[in-house]
Fold each of these.
Amino acid sequence: MGMALKALAAFACLATAAGCGGDEEQPLFGPPTESVCPSDSTLTYENFGKEFMETYCTRCHHSELIGEARQGAPSFHDFDTLFGIKAVNEHIDFTTAAGPGAVNDTMPPDGAIPSDDERYQLGEWIACDMPE
């Protein structure tokens, strides 16, 4: 599990005052999508990821937004750069992407909503290590 996700999970446990008991770590939102990168994938940040994030995510997850303008989006979950996306890619998989293991649709909570096909593409792009 990535360092950013561990920190987020710890924060969630403290914020809700709920115990995180048990020996197994549980995903914060949905289960992993278990997406795999097909050898013929053509998805890149330039032809998919950037537009997906601008359409569905950066209205809250943008580095220039602060306070209430983030509409509850956690600090340092900024999707206006590839670096910011890669920093929390597991979180994105657990909340927004789709694959053979799950269709996670807790994000975005309102506004424009990606189709399942777009969610599957997101899962694929993440599984392919989010090429530029």
Note: The first helix runs from residue 3 to 16.
Amino acid sequence: MTTPLTLTPGRRSDGTAVLAAVGEIDMSNTHELAVAIDSTTGPLVLDLSGDEYLDSAGLSVLFSRAGRIELVASPLLDPVLAISGLTDLIARSATGRGAGGDAAGPGR
């Protein structure tokens, strides 16, 4: 069974792609996450502020795309991002939908 995850693409006012992920990221839905990330070109703001869980399969997707991702995440995910070392590789933005409210993304 696939864990619920909603992926919503958008754009910041500067044109940078934004992908908001809401739910849980685990091995049952990482393929969808990878496809959504890979369907964008250039830099990507990945907004995980609505994500409640991130397992090693999700981390693997992020590690393999670390060179083009700017991450927005809630404090809930801070321990797993820090322990995994991902925070050393990926730029972080302030927590909040659309990377600090600069998004022209979902519903805007």
Note: Residues 30-38 form the longest helix (9 residues).
Amino acid sequence: MSNKKTKKNLTVRLGGVVCTLRRARTTLLVGILIMKAQYIEEASKVITDTHILINMVSRRVRQLNAGSRPLIDAGVSVGLADVALLEIAQGKIVLAELLVDAA
């Protein structure tokens, strides 16, 4: 018998994207990815078009990197993309089209 440890892959679905992780990664990383998937699902309920959601998150991350303050209280370990997703999920950031339709 060989003493080698077999490495198994772990497949995680993030929104519509499937990611395969090597089993050598820590459980913490898997927990973080699952949490991000939860944020993606919450934001997808508000903005159903995936392309628009990606563009909104991307633009908001650029704003946060440039020094804008987050509109929510997020923990220290929460990444900027997660902050953007949570802001969208909580209705702090909305599409301009949604504002026009509401008026």
Note: The helical segments are 27-46, 50-65, 80-89, 96-102.
